[in-house]
Amino acid sequence: MSTAETPGSSNFIRTIINEDLHSGKHDQVITRFPPEPNGYLHIGHAKSICLNFGLATEYQGRCNLRFDDTNPTKEEDEYVEAIKQDVAWLGFAWGEQPLFASDYFAQLYRWAIKLIEKGKAYVDSQNAEEMRANRGTLTQAGTDSPYRNRSVEENLQLFEKMKNGDFADGSHILRAKIDMAAPNMNLRDPAMYRILHAQHHRTGDKWCIYPMYDFAHGQEDSIEGVTHSICTLEFEDHRPLYEWFLKELEIFAPQQIEFARLNLSYTVMSKRKLLQLVNDQHVDGWDDPRMPTVSGMRRRGYPAAAIRSFCERIGVGRNASWIDLSILEDCVREQLNETSFRRQAVLKPLKVTITNYPHDKVEELEAPNHPQRPEQGSRMLPFCNELWVDRDDFMQAPPKKFFRLGPDREVRLRNGYIIKCDEIIKDDSGEVVELKCSADLDTLGKNPVGRKVKGIIHWVSARHAAKVTVRSYDRLFNQENPDKAENYLAALNPESLHVSEALVEPSLLAARGGETFQFERVGYFTVDSKDSGEGQPVFNRTVTLRDAWAKMK
Ligand code: ATP
Ligand code: MG
Q1: Which residue in 5, 183, 301, 356 has a CA-CA distance of 20 to 30 Å to 16?
Q2: Is residue 327 classed exposed, middle or buried when 0-12, 13-18 and 19+ CB atoms within 10 A define those classes?
Q3: Are 151 and 194 in a shared domain?
Q4: How far apart are the CA of 304 and the centre of ligand 2, in A?
Q5: Using one digit for the tens of pLDDT, what is the confidence trace for 35-77?
Q6: CATH number, residue 405
Q7: pLDDT digits (tens, 9 = 90+) for 447-458
Q8: What are the tens digits of pLDDT across the range 160-219?
Q9: What pLDDT score was predicted for residue 4?
C-alpha cells in the first residue's frame, strides 16, 4: 500500500488518509461519488469524481459510483445513463455495478423502525407551515411539536400506515427526536421519512415513503464501508446529524471530510439552472458545447485528460474560491497541442491568384500532421494557381511589424512557396476582392537566398477546398459571476454562438465525429458528433489558440 509516497501533489485529504493508514485506523481506502440522477454532470462534479476516484486509484482502494436516488419526482434513468457515460469517459471505473440508494430502501426502513423503538424517532402530524414556524431561527430555539411525545406503539402504527399508503402526501412525517433547541438547526428534530406517492425510476410504486437525504446518506456510506466520505463544505453542518444517526443505529461510521466546491467564472453550476437553460432552449440540450457539463465539454472537444489535469491543478482546499475559466481553457490547449493533427482552414476567405503558376497545373505538397511529431506522418495538400487566404492576413497599408501580406510584401505559404503581393484588385465599392501574387518557385522547403521572409500564413487551394460549417463559441455568460446578477438569464451572452462557413483542405471531409484538429493559426476544432453527416463535418471551435479575453482586460 502506498502511503507517504503518493503521486500527485499533496492536499489536506491525502494527509488525513496517510495518517489513518499509518495509525492503523484503516487498512484500505474506500471512497464514493454519490450523484443524484436529476441532471447531467458538470465540471464541479468532475472535480469530485477526480478526487474520489483519483484517491481510490492512488491508494489501490475502491471508489463506488452510487446514485443517490431518494427523490423520485426529479430522478430519471436518462440521467443515470448519462452519468455512467461521463464517469467512464473521464477515465474512471466503479467496479462491477453502479450502486443505488434505492437498493437500501428496505434496510433504511428497518433502521427507521429501530430508532422509533428506541424512542429516538416519532411521527409528526403538523402541517408544513406549522413545522416551519416551530423550527425557530438561528437565534431562537424551536418549539416541540405537540406530537413529539407519541408512544412508541402509536409511532410504529402510524409509520406502518405511512408505508402502506394510508395517508396523503404531506400529512405525516417521521422525524428524529433530538433537540428542538439545538444551536445547529440540522439537529432540531430533522425529517427522516416523508410520504410521496410517486413513481420511482427503479422501485416503481413499491414505496410511497422515501428517506430524506440526511437520513440516507451516512447510512449508505456505512453499508458500503466507505472509509473517507468526501463531500462539499455545505454538508459540514450536517455532519453532527449523520454522526448522531450512525451512533444511535450502532453501525460503522465513515469519516466525513469536507472540501470547498468548485466555482468557475462565467458559469452557473446549479443543476436547477442548467435544467432551465435546457428546458427553455437557451442552449441546445445538456450537451450543448457551451454548457459546463461533462457531456457538453466532450462534444466541444475538451479531452478527458485536460479536465483531469485541470482538477489536479486547481487542487483541493477548504476555502471557497473562484477559478477562472481561462485555467480550464489553458489545460485544454496544452493537451490538444500535444495530440491534435494540424490542418489548414480559412475562415474569412480572400482570393489569391498566383500569376506565374500554370493554371492547369496541380501539385501535391507534403505537410506534416504534427510539426513536433514526425512519426505522426503527413498528408498531401493540393496547390494550384488559385488560393484562399485569410482576409486578416492582408493589409493595404500595413505597419512595419505586420509580417503578412501587403503591397509588395512577401510571405511564406505554410508548407508551400513564398509569394509576393504584386497587385490588389478591388470591386466597385472599393473592397479588396483579390490579390495577384507571384510565387518564388525555388522556395519549397528552403529559404530564399539573400533575403529573409518572416511571416507564414495558412491557405487552401480554391479549386480543391471543401466548404464546411464552423461553429465558434464564446462564453455562455458575459458576467463573471452570473449567480450574482439579479436574474442570471440576463447575464447570458447573446453572442455565445457564431455559425459561419470555412474553406478547408479536402482531407478534412473524411474527419469523423469527435476528432479534433488544430486549424493552424486559428484554433482547435472538433467534429460535432451529432450534427455532422457523412462527408459533411460540422466543426465546433473547441478553444482558440490564445486567450482572447485576457487581451481585453
Ligand atoms: P445541486 O446542483 O442540485 O445542489 P449537486 O451539484 O450537489 O446538486 P449531486 O448530484 O448531489 O449534485 O452531486 C454529487 C457530488 O458532486 C456531491 O458529492 C457533491 O459534493 C459534488 N459536487 C457537486 N457540485 C460540486 C462542485 N461545484 N464542486 C465540487 N464538487 C461538487
Ligand atoms: Mg447534492
Answers
A1: 183
A2: middle
A3: yes
A4: 23
A5: 999 999 999 999 999 999 999 999 999 999 999 999 999 999 9
A6: 2.40.240.10
A7: 999 999 999 999
A8: 999 999 999 999 999 999 999 999 999 999 999 999 999 999 999 999 999 999 999 999
A9: 37
Q: Copy the grid coordinates of residue 216.
A: 440516507
**Residue 543 domain boundaries:** 271-341+468-552
**How many whole angstroms separate alpha carbon 28 and alpha carbon 12?**
18
484 is an active site residue? no
Please, are residues 463 and 361 in contact by the beta-carbon 8 Å criterion? no
Overall average pLDDT of the 494-504 stretch: 97
Ligand 2 center to residue 218 CA distance, Å? 13
Do 107 and 253 lie in one domain? The reply is yes
CA dist 226 and 501 (Å) reads 52
Query: pTM for this structure?
Result: 0.93
162, 148: one domain: yes
- Domain-embedded: residue 84: yes
pLDDT in tens, 75-106: 999 999 999 999 999 999 998 899 999 999 99
The percentage of residues in the chain with a pLDDT greater than 70, rounded to a whole number, is 97
Cα 45 to averaged position of ligand 2 atoms, centre (Å): 10
Residue 435: phi, psi to the nearest 5?
A: -120, 135
HSE at residue 507, side-chain half, CA atoms within 13 A, is: 20
Residue 44 counted as domain residue: yes
Residue 513 resides in a domain: yes
Q: How far apart are CA 138 and CA 129, in angstroms?
A: 18
> Which residues sit with their C-beta closer than 6 Å to ligand 1?
34-36, 44-45, 47-48, 231-232, 261-262, 269-271
CATH number at residue 131: 3.40.50.620
3 state SS of 187: helix
Nearest by Cα to 103 from 151, 65, 55, 54: 65
Q: Report yes or no: 430 and 316 within 8 Å, Cβ to Cβ.
A: no
